Every structure is written in C-alpha cells, then in structure tokens.
TrEMBL record:
Species assigned in the record: Pygocentrus nattereri (Red-bellied piranha)
Pfam families, per database record: Mob1_phocein
Entry keyword set: Metal-binding, Zinc
Binding site residues for Zn(2+): C78, C83, H157, H162
Protein's UniProt keywords contain Disulfide bond: no
UniProt name for this protein: MOB kinase activator 2a
Region span, Disordered: 1-23
Family matches, as InterPro entries: MOB_kinase_act_fam (IPR005301), MOB_kinase_act_sf (IPR036703)
Length: 222
C-alpha cells in the first residue's frame, strides 16, 4: 500500500486563516501541564539487545493507538462543518489514494483515512511481523516514516482545531505528554524531516524545554 501525503499553504476555502488568532496551546499555564515529570527521552532510546525494527514497530503501533484514542476524545467536535478541510496552522493536507488521486477532504474524513490505513498496515504480518523468525520488509523504515507523518498531521490538527475542547475536558496534560513523547521518538530515529514538523516548532520548543524543578509534583492541575 503506497499512500502519500500532500499539503499546501494558504487560506483554506478562502476563509481567514486561524494563524491570526492567538494560539491557546502556547500559553505557559497550558504548556506546563503534563502527566509525567521525567525525561521522555529515556522511554525512546533503543534498549541494548533489542532489534531496531522491533523497537520501531512496537513504538509506532503504540503511538497509533494512543493518538487514535486522543482523537476520539474530540471526534464529536470534528465534523465536516467545523473542519471542512484537514488543516493545522496555515497548512492544508490532502489525501492521496493508492492510485495517486488527490482528494481534498474534511478533517474527519482525512483522519478516518489515516486510521484505517495505518490499522491495516500494523496488523499485516508482511509489514509488521509478530511471529518468531518472520523478517521485516526491506523498506520498513520508509513505512514507519509514512505512518509518523500521518500521525503528526492528526496531532497537529487536534492542537489547532480542538485544543479548547481538550482543555475543557482536562485532557491537555495527556495531549502535551503524548505530543512530546512522539516528537522525542521521531527525533531520536530521524523519522521525519524537520521541515515537515516546522509548522508546530513553537509548540515543540515550549514542550521539549525542561520544566523548572519544583518541590511538588506537577502531574496535573485542577
């Protein structure tokens, strides 16, 4: 399965781009909220004696499940009316099917395409082998990179389009931790070109900067 990614910058559907609005997710009162208070890099470093592909497969599958779960918390707010295009910042993402046909779709349609496609891949023994002695495909790293690009799009859209709802449900600490964990992972193994993640560089800098040490655990704020 060879599905691709397309994007363009500009005003989606001629509407005023939300980049002119203040980014709530960058406010210090929100960026400091996490569900863990240790260095997430410790979780992504390849352990001794573990095969690289096995490690990539395990983490990629885990991130797929976690990001899918995180999106499910805001899916009722992500509709064709509220999100007529799949966007984050001033970037609109297009879906390309297996035949290379470009499709401009709503955000919920795009996310459904992503989750359905990734689900098929991670449960396919030829792509993500789980049986002992089964070899990983030669282009496995490229496959992981494609999946990570799509998962990044979903995370970015949650921040850009549904952060207010996430805060209202007190789930922004989980989202911040998941995003930071994911970014640290893709950086550790060079799974995405920095240009592809640059639209969220301000958030990445805010979340990946170590928090000041405090006497109390800042697991959550209520």
């Amino acid at each position: 399965m060879d599905w691709l990614m397309g994007k363009s910058k500009g005003k989606p559907n001629g509407k005023k781009p939300p980049t002119e609005e203040k980014k709530q997710y960058l406010e210090p009162d929100y960026t400091k909220v996490r569900v863990v208070d240790f260095d997430l890099k410790e979780l992504v470093v390849l352990p001794p004696e573990i095969d690289l592909n096995e490690w990539l497969a395990s983490n990629t599958t885990t991130f797929f499940n976690l990001i899918n779960l995180q999106y499910s918390t805001v899916s009722e707010f992500c509709t064709g009316d509220t999100c007529p295009v799949m966007s984050a910042c001033n970037t609109t993402y297009y879906w390309y099917d297996e035949k290379g046909k470009k499709t401009k779709c709503t955000a919920p349609q795009y996310v459904d395409f992503v989750m359905s496609s990734v689900q098929k891949l991670v449960t396919d023994e030829d792509n993500f082998p789980t049986k002992y002695g089964k070899e990983f495909p030669n282009a496995f790293d490229s496959l992981v990179k494609k999946i990570c690009r799509y998962l990044f799009h979903v995370l970015s859209h949650i921040y850009w389009g549904h952060y207010k709802e996430t805060v209202a449900m007190d789930l922004h600490g989980h989202l911040n931790t998941l995003y930071t964990h994911f970014i640290v992972f893709i950086r550790e193994f060079n799974l995405m070109d920095p240009k592809e993640t640059s639209i969220m560089d301000d958030l990445t800098e805010a979340l990946c900067t170590p928090l000041p040490q405090t006497p109390q655990n800042h697991v959550t704020e209520r």
